[in-house]
Amino acid sequence: MADAPGVESFVVQGEPTKDFFISMLVRDIGLIPAIVDLVDNSVDGARRLRPADDPAREEDERFTGLFVSLRVTAESFEITDNCGGITWETARSYAFRFGRPTEAPATPGSIGQFGIGMKRALFKLGNAFTVRSVTEKEDFELRVNVPEWSESKEWNFSNVTYRPDAHDSDEVGTTITVTSLHPAVSESFSLKRFESELSDELSMRHQASMSDGLAVSLNGIPVDVDVLTLLTSEELKPGYFSDALDKESDTPVHVSMYTGVSASSPTDAGWYVYCNGRLILGPDRTSVTGWGTARGVPQYHNQYARFRGYLFFESASVDKLPWTTTKEGVDSGHWAYRALKTRMVDAMRPVMAFLNALDAEKDNPAAGKESLESYVSAAESSPSTLTQITTTTAFTSPQRPKAPKAPETQSIQFVRPKKQIDAIKKKLKVSSAGKVGEGTFDYFYKRECADDE
To answer: pLDDT of 430-442, one tens digit each?
Structure first.
């Protein structure tokens, strides 16, 4: 609508201040998750460099030779990888923008989704950072002084050098260095406990990629990874299921699900949910993954410390994956997750039944090789990795031998003088009237009835 004659048009400013923007950007993410976000970018590079569907490569060797190296000190943070580098076009047009532009080229199978992970992590860590990246055709270096950038009205980063130079393959990769660390970050990096917690988180979140050969180290020490396994034998077989959702589209969601038993560990038991190889939930023992929500699947307690469930979502289109913006939880309302929730509950039931029987066996042990515990012990010597489990089947387990029928019982009650009962307590060396009754009954039965059996 045009302005009325004589009425002046004004503009009211609505753009955010940079200080407010940075504050809000980093508020809802912890220090360790922010660092894991940076590793996500390196893993994305590895996935671009070594696509999952490359026919010239064995799956178990997918990331062999690729590495991500982190170094944290009280003065600085550095992450280096050899996972392909960032092209100049990507850096100039997309990588350093706040949010993923709609025209940005897709990164099939990536972990990054919203275009904020790297910037959020860098602002979280300190007041100065440098990003240097090398490809076989070019290299660039971007330097940012955060306080100076915050005072400028310009949102772009201008302190950048670019060189269209050729590089050998062993030079290719990205190095990010953060200095002028925030005081709280510097203090955390000084703690030995922090290194241990970060190493554990890296091992857990990127377990799948590390199992495929990606080498991750922290302050020169390799991050250990526990290869995902389930107990397998002729009698004890994990459940396995695979399918594709949205099959008619160009970017279907591939799903793989494994259920079974592993080492007894209350802290490790539960469901693990992965999106494009990145753990987003687990070990989970809540209603989000079906615990306590349906018949045959009770709430978790330590009787189920051997339960393991692994659910993998893979898609070239990251917006089809059921993860939250921080990638630290599953979006339980997402259509892809809802499509699997019933299958998860169904897959849990036979495992729960087996673990219930295994627990009941403690009170009524079976003899020799027929015990369920003996089958579990035998399978523990040769667990199967998930990549070795390829046959679609429900979880199967040996049947527990039927317990002998308990003899029929009946209670007996009688009254006698307390003085007499106390005298018998003393003779039988027991402390209760009930024990007196049992003791006198057994005494009489042994002497008068035993020969009649």
So the answer is: 888 888 888 888 8
Cα separations in angstroms, 241 against 1, 274, 323, 340, 347: 59, 15, 21, 11, 9
- The residues, ordered by sequence, that sit 6+ positions from 275 with a Cβ below 8 Å of its Cβ are 111, 313, 314, 318, 321, 322, 323, 327
Is 161 in a helix, a strand, or coil? strand
Candidates 340, 331, 336, 341; CA nearest to 317 is 336
**Residue type present at position 365:** P
C-alpha span between 178 and 194 (Å, rounded): 17
Burial 188-208 (b: 16+ CB within 10 A, else e): bbeeeebbeebbebbbebbbb
- Which position has the higher pLDDT, 7 or 258? 258
CA gap 259, 162 in Å, rounded: 50
Q: Do residues 242 and 255 lie in contact, with contact meaning Cβ atoms separated by under 8 Å?
A: yes
| C-alpha distances in Å from residue 103, one per residue of 88, 94, 285, 349 | 16, 9, 40, 46
Paired tokens of 235: 């009698």
pLDDT digits (tens, 9 = 90+) for 260-301: 999 999 999 999 999 988 899 989 999 999 999 877 789 999
For residue 382, give the DSSP letter: S
In whole angstroms, what is the distance from residue 200 CA to residue 282 CA?
13
Residue 392: count other Cβ atoms within 10 Å of its Cβ.
10
* Predicted local confidence at residue 114, as pLDDT: 45
